[in-house]
């Protein structure tokens, strides 16, 4: 049995007797257990149970939710820890919209709603600016070339 465990570790670049990194633990098999459902979560120790009542629900475009919460919602845990609110982000309307459910004290829910609304506005504005910038750059470049032709050798 020791050879099997050792070979499993060695396949992941670990030598017996060395301490694995946290990233390495993510790649280890969980004794054949099926992957946990992304919707199944344990309430964090720091979050009071009574604050799970009366959540605040808001909607935004799915691409905005991905910009705010990261690819595969990778930033949710950090946002929850900093804000002291629990978040659930679900894709609805055939993937076009995201439903964001915010749990916490009323003041925390409202603050989180304002933060998310401001981030969504900021990302929309910058998305538009990034979309227009190449066109402006092309027009400027064409204008510059027309008025200042390259020097002939």
UniProtKB/TrEMBL annotation:
| Ranges of residues in domain KH-like RNA-binding | 43-126
According to its UniProt record, where is this protein mainly located? cytoplasm
GO cellular component terms given for this protein: cytoplasm; nucleus; protein-containing complex
Q: Which residues cross the membrane?
A: none
Q: Which domain of life is it from?
A: Eukaryota
Family, per entry: Belongs to the KHDC1 family.
Tell me what this protein is called: KH-like RNA-binding domain-containing protein
Q: Please report the organism this UniProt entry assigns to the protein.
A: Peromyscus maniculatus bairdii (Prairie deer mouse)
**What lineage does UniProt assign to this protein's organism?**
Eukaryota, Metazoa, Chordata, Craniata, Vertebrata
